[in-house]
DNA sequence: CATGCTGGGTAAGGATTCCTAACCTGATCT
DNA sequence: AGATCAGGTTAGGAATCCTTACCCAGCATG
């Protein structure tokens, strides 16, 4: 909430330490003592600033999400048309995963299995992002750019699923993510579907 | 491998116990002692039959997958046309999640974050299933039913992602999954995309 | 100046959890 | 009768997450 840089040094060191560790290990394999050692503080300090190991992860993810939300808002400025906005949103989404591997891993792999994640403050930030996507879809339906015979919420889930799964496999197997290339293909798929015919330009 | 029912009673009780526990708790919150108690055996017996807690989960998932693979193979028999097969496959996929909530939870939430999962025997079974999907897509491209300007492997990832994400949200928030309804919507999305126009029948 | 208080940090320990090594026991084979 | 073996148990240990109580520098206040 308070986004002022009033954070004590210990807290910053801890969050940074986890960030670094996540580059090479998965969250489940990282221990609190490891984080503490890596941060140069004692284990107990972690529990001063965070409710627990998971809360630390959530707060780290929140930081990423706040940055990303701002970025997306900026990226979409000045773009006309729902489909054009959607294309840009997809690009931004893929691009952030391509840039911040750790962010991708947390969001796509680690937090998903924690049931308390879905009631966390962090998840609300994700909702805020998906809300943007929903609004674009609704705008597109109003404009006649997007078909109106499938519920927007459903479309959102399907679109997000395809974006994330395409990135997920690349994250898991440590393959390169090319935002431009993937965006192009994803938009072709999402906009026109897989049926032969409509794509004959 | 050996699909003979030659399994000792203890092993069965342990697997059953986990299955039951997974109905109400997530894997991370289930302890080995809890499993043992619930199964009516000692903790050490778990390690007689399984390499560890995770291996137990993987093997449980493998059982589900073996059943499902057989089911899918059956479901697809006698269907002509790649798109018709794909529709049926999507239905089967959604249907199994609708039927076996525990299976869905394991596959969509629990195992994904374990990095050793992706090198496990269990994951090979998943590959076997996704291979079927790939073959359908390739058949469709050959037939001219499916567009040929997006790589089949990419299409598979995108399609699977949309299926799974649609189900995932329902699994997470304990909402009902209606195979018929979701299949209809998903096929509309996957076949024709979101653009307005092509859907004017 | 003493006093108290507050924010940042530490020391020490405890319950739980996952897992292992060694042992037991009844059945089957020879 | 002795050996072997599958199915199971007893007992324990290292590691992990987390809590409680404590330390101490700075600094505002009377």
UniProtKB/TrEMBL annotation, chains A, B:
This is TetR/AcrR family transcriptional regulator. Residues 31-50 bind DNA. Keywords: DNA-binding. The keyword DNA-binding applies. PANTHER family: ACREF/ENVCD OPERON REPRESSOR-RELATED, ACREF_ENVCD OPERON REPRESSOR-RELATED. Transmembrane segments: none annotated. It holds the Pfam family TetR_N. GO terms for molecular function: DNA binding. The keyword DNA-binding applies. Residues 8-68 form the HTH tetR-type domain.
